[in-house]
Amino acid sequence: MTTRVAIVGGTGKLGSIIRDVVDETEGFEVSAVLGSASDLAEIAGADLVVDASTPAVSVDVVRAAVERGVNVLVGTSGWSMERIALVRPLVDAAGSGAVFIPNFSLGSVLATALAAAAAPFFPSIEIVEAHRETKVDSPSGTAARTAELIAAARSEAGPVSSPHVDQRARGQQVASVPIHSLRRPGVIARQDTILSGPGESLTLTHDTVDPARAYRPGIRVALLAARETRGVVVGLDSLIDLGLGASASSADA
What we know:
Blueprint: E1 3-8, H1 13-24, E2 28-34, E3 48-51, H2 55-67, E4 71-74, H3 81-94, E5 97-100, H4 106-118, E6 124-131, H5 141-153, E7 172-174, E8 177-183, E9 189-197, E10 200-208, H6 211-214, H7 216-228, E11 231-234
């Protein structure tokens, strides 16, 4: 049986990659392509809605899908755990499924998981993330997700040490972790997680240099999962075994 997929934001950079993956994946077909300003009634008839729109529109896309009892795969940035918690009751009540993927890149997911695994051993942790100047939201969803998983991994150690966070130049705190966002031309996506302790530091860096190639495997995994999911699932790490134990997914509950 073929799964009909409606893609909101399907003409954008990420949406175009998702369209290609849907076309290449057996058992899936694109039934509708919507822009961020389209009438969401156009998702009617879809078996799965994929959201690659904008942070301002994304919540309406999720609600429109859930109200119709249709599963939704969200690739739009800006979904913190607090924001996801607001729509979780709607998803549960509808008996449908919602999969939120902050980053479709396997390398990015591994870098985040490694940061969470190392987090209990370093008292000071900060994140510097950079994206092209057209990215409208900050901090990035990947950075926020990394901070949330770091905090979960440090449930016994406590919040990270973040001196002088009352100063605006010290970044925005997410789950006690300072995040610094750069928006500039000449970069696609880069994240440095800097963990520091007495006499040493560890920096975990992930660079996305070709999104069309980097995102495809993760998009395919997410599509297959989103078709059958019930309830809320957060992160590509929840769909694949990274071999790092439970630390990488402990914030999903």
